[in-house]
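Minutes, project check-in

Agenda point 3 was the complex the collaborators sent over. CS summarized: two entities, 407 residues total, and the question is how they sit relative to each other. Sequences were read into the notes so everyone works from the same version.
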Amino acid sequence: MARWGMVIDLDRCTGCQACVIACKAENNVPAVGAKEAVRGRIISWMQVLTEVEDHDHPGEQMRFVPRPCLQCDDPPCTKVCPVYATYRNPEGIVAQIYARCIGCRFCMAACPYNAKYFNWHRYQKEGPGQNPDVSVRPKGVVEKCTFCHHRLQHARERALAEGREVAPGEYVPACAEACPARAIIFGDLSDPGSEVSRLAQSRRAFRLLEELGTKPKVIYLTEGEGRG
Amino acid sequence: MKWLAVIGVIAVALLTWGFWWEPAVKQPIEYPHKTHVQQLKLPCTSCHQRAEKDAVAGRPPTALCVACHSGGEAKSEEIKKIQAFGEKGQEIPWKRVWRLPPHVFFSHRTHVAVAKVKCQTCHGAMETLDRPPARPLKTLAMNDCIGCHEQWEWPNEKGGGVVKAVARRVSTDCNACHR
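CS then shared the predicted structure for the full assembly.
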C-alpha cells in the first residue's frame, strides 16, 4: 500500500504563492471577507510562511516555508477527536470527514502547525465555478488540506476500470502541479525508487518541529542554516 | 382565542402542504421502463451508456431514443414528442431524480463495470414501472454502502468459492468515498 508524502525544497521556493492559489481554486477554499479576516479566520490550507528580513542585517535572504497539512504519521489532531471525524487512513493521509465533524475544534488546538481551519459561517454555496469533486464545507466544521485526495479517488477509479494499479505521477495534488519552480515534489514514500523518497533521504532533509515526534510526511529540504 | 390559534396552525399547515417534502419530479416524457426492460429485454446500459464508461451515469441523449423511434408513424403522443425533440436537434430535458450528497464520491463505472453490481441493488425495481418515478424508489443511507462494502463477496473467477471484499480492494476507509 502506498504511503503518500511530499518534499518541499525551500531553496527552490520563490514565495510566489502559486501553490496557495492553486489549492484554493482546487479545493473550494472560501474567501472569508475582510471582517472575518480581521478576526483571524482566514482559511488557507496551503500557506506560505515568511520571515521578514532583519533591517540590522541587510543582505540576508528572505525565507519562505510553504505549509500544507503535514500529514503526520503520528498526528496529535486525530487523538483528540471525540467523534473519529479526523483519522490517519491506511495510506497515511490524515482525513477530515466533514459529515462527521461536530466542530469542537479540539483538533485545531492540538495541531502544532495550525494547519486546521474552522468554518465560522457558511462562507459559500455550491455553484458553477467551483470544483464539483470537492464538497463545500458547511458551517461549524473543521477543514484542512487532504493532499487533494479527491484526485486519488479519481485516479484509483480510472485504474480500477482499466484493471491496473495507480501509476506514479497519476495522482499529484494541485499545489505540486502548480509550483513553477518545481519546489514541491509529491509521490509514494514507500516506493524506494520514487523521487520523493530519494529526496526524503537527502542530507538536506528536515521536518517541521521534528522534536515533537509527530513524524510529518511533508519533508523540507534546505542547505545549511535556517532549518525549521 | 385558543380556537383562533388552532385554526391559524391548521391554515398554515394547509397552505404549506406539499412544500414539506421533496416535490415530485415530472419528466418531459412518460417513459415506460417496463416496456423497454421487461418486454424488449434491453439491458439498462443500452440507454444509460455512461454508467459503464464514466463515474457519472448521466442521462440518455436524444439521438439514442431517435435511433429506434425515428422511422414510421408514431404510435403514441410520447413518441411524437421524442421525434419533435429529434427534429429540432434538442436534448430531452430529463430531470434528475437520484441525488447523492455532494460530499460523496461514487463511481458508476466501478460499481457497474468492475464490481458487476446490479442496478436494482441501489435503484430498486425500475423495470416494473410504467411511467417515470416521481421520487427515488429507495432512500439510500450510508449503511447501504457500508453493508455491501463490508460483506461483499464475488464468485471466484479462477475456481470455486468466493472472494471476500478485503481481497478485492473494496475499501471501508472513510476517505475512499467522502470528499
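Noted in discussion: Chain A has a mean pLDDT of 92.
Follow-up: revisit at the next meeting once the mutant set is ready.
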